[in-house]
Amino acid sequence: MSLDFSLQQQLDERRRQSLYRQRQVVDSPQGVEVEVEGKRYLSFSSNDYLGLANHPQIIAAFQQGLSRWGVGSGAAHLVSGHSAAHHALEEELADFLEYPRVLLFSSGYQANLGIHQALLGRRDRTIHDRLNHASLLDGAKLSGARLLRYGHSDLNGLERRLSEPANGRTMVVTDGIFSMDGDNAPLPAIAEKCLSRGATLLVDDAHGIGLQGPQGRGTVAKFGLGSTEVPILMATLGKAFGVSGAFVAGSEPLIETLIQQARTYIYTTATPPAQAEATRKAVELVREGAERREQLQKMVAFFREGAATLKLNLIHSTTAIQPLLVGRSKDALKLSEQLWQQGILVAPIRPPTVAEGSARLRITFSANHTESHLDQLLEALAACSR
Ligand SMILES: *Cc1c(COP(=O)(O)O)cnc(C)c1O
Predict the structure, then answer these.
(1) What are the start and end residues of each CATH 3.40.640.10 domain in the chain?
(2) Which of 50, 183, 338, 385 has its CA 20 to 30 A from that of 324?
(3) Is 207 a catalytic residue?
(4) Would you call 39 a catalytic residue per the annotation?
(5) Using only C-alpha atoms, what is the Rg of the chain?
(6) How far is the CA of 60 from the centre of ligand 1 (A)?
(7) Which residue owns the Cα nearest ligand 1 atom 4?
(8) What pTM value is reported for the model?
(9) Between the CA of residue 379 and those of 97, 246, 312, 371, 383, what are the distances in Å?
(10) Fold for domain 22-50+290-385?
(11) What is the pLDDT along the chain (386 residues), one digit of tens a residue?
């Protein structure tokens, strides 16, 4: 059987199961409205939570950065690609987060692979929440460490895992806000268990950074925790910060170890220095972004009220991620298509991204949404359920 023939059979099977995925070709910048095939759609499907992805001041910083630095970084950080712009961004992030040091990665996916691979080996174990992001799971697999999992935010489950005998290092890993459910991890209780058992806690705050806590310092700061309780804090720069890339914050020895050992840091080209300049401006806007965060919270509250009136099956979440639980992939796909017909973009999320039978529409909000946008969404959802 030829490769193409067998691939086509698999693809056809995927389509039959309503699991086939397709990309929309977007003809406009990211925003609460996007253009696809000449038509405008109201978007509730972006992680650009603070509306910074198309912000004039960040665009200007990127452009000035291009004039100053040119386009490419030319090499990996350890060769000759680590510019003063990257270095300044690392220092500004460390200052913002009140962590000793920060290390930039080209993406969050790479950061999570690198952390696991650099810090863990066969003799070690890593204990994960069952709903952790795919990049964390892949990092655990790559590291060769023993992977143990506990039920979603189940503290007793975590306790049982921690009490199993172990020889090497133990790293406990959780999302700060879960990417497909929108709920917060119970970080204070998790951190306490880690401290009392001598385990190291890694928090992936991709969806909390910039949004929660004082000045948007994230889920760790929101709970009054810091580098003692959460020695490894990872987050991305492509969501609330509106740009791209990621970072790890931690102690001096931790960051130095990642520089020496993390292969996804060492063997990849540094992001363009101009991008670092744009991100420096984004950090500034995030720190001063109290009004944006308030507007976002208002939108979330407004939507939840409207959804309650419509008796929509929302997952309990108070964050910008408001998943509407549907169940079957087929039905999630259909609902998404019905909204699309009404000029609204909300992507369906299906297995394996979420558990079998829990397909959903992942509705996300931005500080640039208004009540009128939400009224349109609620009306469209009401029309679908009629
Ligand atoms: C988006 C995301 C990542 C990956 O970050 P990228 O920079 O997009 O590669 C990692 N973890 C979580 C929880 C995420 O939501």
Answers:
(1) 57-287
(2) 50
(3) yes
(4) no
(5) 21
(6) 26
(7) 108
(8) 0.97
(9) 40, 37, 12, 12, 6
(10) Aspartate Aminotransferase, domain 1 (3.90.1150)
(11) 899 999 999 999 999 998 899 899 999 999 999 999 999 999 999 999 999 999 999 999 999 999 999 999 999 999 999 999 999 999 999 999 999 999 999 999 999 999 999 999 999 999 999 999 999 999 999 999 999 999 999 999 999 999 999 999 999 999 999 999 999 999 999 999 999 999 999 999 999 999 999 999 999 999 999 999 999 999 999 999 999 999 999 999 999 999 999 999 999 999 999 999 999 999 999 999 999 999 999 999 999 999 999 999 999 999 999 999 999 999 999 999 999 999 999 999 999 999 999 999 999 999 999 999 999 999 999 999 88
> How far apart (Å, rounded) are the C-alpha atoms in residues 254 and 261?
10
Which residue bears the tokens 């939507």? Answer: 303
Q: Is 28 a catalytic residue?
A: no
93-109: b or e for each residue (b if 16 or more CB lie within 10 Å)? bbebbebebbbbbbbbb
CA distances from residue 75 to 106, 115, 299 in whole angstroms, order as listed: 12, 21, 43
Tokens for 80? 């000759």
Cα(43)–Cα(55) distance, rounded to whole angstroms? 17
CB atoms within 10 A of CB 39: 10
Q: Does 3.40.640.10 match the CATH number of domain 57-287?
A: yes
- Ligand 1 and 109: CB distance under 6 A: yes
The finding on whether 108 has its CB within 6 A of some atom of ligand 1 is yes
